[in-house]
């Protein structure tokens, strides 16, 4: 942050937005004091940079696609890390994100909307349009799935009347054999957003179908983390399906031993639920998951 003043002065002198964005991205990942965050945000979104105006004025210029993509990525990271300092800008941020962007900038715009939607209903205003785009998506499928799922998770009142359609869209996408592993992981995660509030409203047969998709995808490296999280958070939905699958239990044990704290925690919770289901009891059984053993008391 010590160099921020020099970066701003250099920008004023030569108007090099590319260099400024590079330095801003680096500074954003430092540990900043509140006044430093406020100063940086003010410089970027007001004077002298006015990044939102730049995006709005240049988003149709194909030669500016990388600039717009980098700008939107910076906004995404800023909202993700310092949401409280950007609240007053959410409406303007949403407006630039829903502009008609080229493919790569659009991916970052959708990611930015997903992050904003965790903090504000403003990002959910165009939900039906986002859902229609997801249903017909040939590009940007993963960020669209993430956005729709995030809105379902954080703003259930917005989606309640459309939840059957949302669920069918996710299931239809999962039925496709053309999805890349990363896109499949995003669709699974998006469907998890639906389960957060609406699992009891969905048909049992469709929940079992989704459970089968989770179990199948859990063996794909790029889907494994989201599948572990789904198994840990929604064991009541399809835990009984998973408990007899030795490959799934093996993948969970591998995650427990992998060393990543958050992933290991999700895997431990999932294993706990699966081994409880495996015993056939739901009242007094306690399963303690360790790194090398399972103890059923």
Runs in which pLDDT lies below 50 for 5 or more consecutive residues are 289-297
Biggest β-sheet: strands ordered side by side in the sheet:
1-2
Total E-strand runs: 2
Task: Please work out how many helical segments DSSP would assign.
Answer: 17
Order of helices and strands: HHHHHHHHHHHHHHHHHEE
Radius of gyration: 22 Å
- Assign an overall shape: globular
For the biggest sheet, the summary is:
2 strands, antiparallel
Approximately how much beta-strand content do the residues carry? under 5%
Secondary-structure-derived class: mainly alpha
| Mean pLDDT over the full residue set | 89
Termini Cα gap: 53 Å
The percent of residues in helical segments reads over 70%
């Amino acid at each position: 942050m010590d160099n921020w003043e020099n970066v701003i002065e250099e920008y004023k002198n030569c108007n090099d937005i590319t260099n400024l964005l590079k330095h801003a991205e680096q500074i954003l990942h430092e540990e900043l004091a509140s006044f430093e965050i406020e100063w940086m945000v003010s410089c970027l979104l007001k004077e002298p940079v006015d990044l939102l105006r730049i995006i709005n004025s240049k988003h149709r210029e194909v030669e500016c696609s990388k600039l717009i993509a980098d700008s939107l990525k910076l906004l995404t990271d800023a909202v993700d890390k310092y949401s409280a300092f950007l609240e007053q800008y959410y409406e303007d941020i949403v407006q630039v994100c829903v502009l008609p962007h080229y493919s790569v900038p659009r991916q970052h715009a959708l990611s930015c909307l997903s992050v904003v939607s965790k903090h504000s209903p403003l990002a959910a205003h165009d939900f039906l349009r986002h859902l229609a785009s997801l249903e017909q998506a040939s590009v940007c499928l993963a960020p669209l799935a993430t956005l729709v799922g995030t809105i379902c998770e954080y703003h259930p009142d917005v989606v309640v009347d459309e939840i059957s359609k949302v669920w069918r869209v996710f299931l239809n996408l999962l039925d496709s054999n053309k999805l890349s592993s990363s896109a499949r992981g995003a669709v699974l995660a998006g469907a998890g957003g639906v389960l957060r509030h609406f699992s009891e409203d969905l048909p049992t047969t469709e929940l079992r179908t989704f459970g089968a998709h989770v179990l199948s995808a859990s063996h794909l490296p790029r889907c494994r983390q989201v599948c572990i999280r789904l198994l840990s958070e929604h064991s009541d939905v399809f835990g009984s399906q998973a408990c007899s699958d030795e490959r799934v239990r093996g993948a969970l044990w591998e995650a427990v031993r992998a060393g990543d704290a958050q992933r290991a925690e999700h895997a431990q919770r999932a294993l706990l639920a699966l081994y409880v289901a495996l015993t056939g009891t739901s009242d007094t059984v306690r399963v303690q998951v360790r790194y090398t053993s399972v103890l059923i008391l």
